Every structure is written in structure tokens, then in C-alpha cells.
Amino acid sequence: MSSGFGMNGGRGRCFPFWQEFTKCYVQTDAPKQECKLQFEDYQECLYHRKELLRMAIVQDEYEKEQARKEHEKKP
User: Domain segments of the chain: what residues?
Assistant: First the structure.
């Protein structure tokens, strides 16, 4: 959470990314261009979209490989 507090008290897992983003945002005149990477890191920490996409791609390739092996086994 951007407040800095996690679900169980203490520090949230994405708070360091939020701090980096806000630090960049405050220090620049063009935050949309210059802070894009920090914002993407923060979003990835929150939602894991890139990670989930990579996992789906790996799973699809695994299933294709398994289907190919099954097809080769059949006489």
C-alpha cells in the first residue's frame, strides 16, 4: 500500500517502489517521461502482470511440448 503499512502492520512489500516513484516524481519537471520505469516497477509489484504473463507463456510452451511428445509416442 502506498501508505507504507502492510496488511499485517509493518512495512508494505511495495512501499520501497512507491518511495522511489514519488522521489522521482518530486524531483523532475516531466514525471510522465522520466519516472516511467519507477512507475512500472511499482505497478509490477502491486499486480504482477509481467510475471503472470511470463508464467502463462512458459505453461503454454510446456503443454505444447507435452502434446508433441504424446503425439510422437502414438504409432
Answer: 5-73
